[in-house]
Amino acid sequence: MKKGKNAEQEINKLLRNAADEERRLLKRERRAEQELVDLQAELAKDEERLERADAGITRRRKEIAEAEARLRERQEARARGPEIGIPPAGATEANEADREPSAGASSKADSREPADESPRPRRKRTNRPSRATSKLAATADAKPAKTRTGTERARRSRGQVPTAAE
């Protein structure tokens, strides 16, 4: 009887192990199926993004081609200049010297240079703190703090911390 009971226990044990293994395999299979569904959804999204990017690239190429065509037209128009009233490049200075002043214009106006040819000189930057920083330091309730000049701020932004010698 003992042998039969041991055999029965062994069979039950093997059946339990087989059932456990089957459950594990089913779980793995479900996980694999879910992963496949997720990957397919991700692939669909990526394909959609790729299509949009391709459409964007096509649109950009079209814009570039149009811009190049406009540029070529302008260059050709400038090269044909005298025919349509636009002077060719480099011919403006020679033509201006030959031109006579108009009867109604004053000689002072003719001697002046046009504003677009002579740019205004840039303001000299001083090595002192900004006005807002100085005002902040001047307020009564503000604690006195060392203000940084523009040069110091620029050096710090580039990662160059000033040494004590400076």
Distance between the termini: 101 Å
Tell me the total number of β-strands: 0
Whole-angstrom Rg: 41 Å
Mean pLDDT: 77
Helical/strand content category: mainly alpha
Largest sheet: none
Helix residue percentage: 55-70%
**What spatial form do the alpha-carbon principal axes imply?**
elongated
- What is the string of SSEs from the N terminus onward? HHHHH
Stretches with pLDDT under 50, minimum 5 residues: none
In DSSP terms, counting alpha (H) and pi (I) runs of 4 or more, how many helices? 5
Strand percent estimate: under 5%
Task: Label this structure with key terms.
mainly alpha; 5 helices; 64% helix; 166 residues
Could you characterize the architecture of this molecule?
The chain is mainly alpha-helical. It has a domain at 2-79. Helix content is 64%, strand content 0%. It contains 5 helices and no strands. The longest helix is centred in the N-terminal third of the chain and has 78 residues, at 2-79.
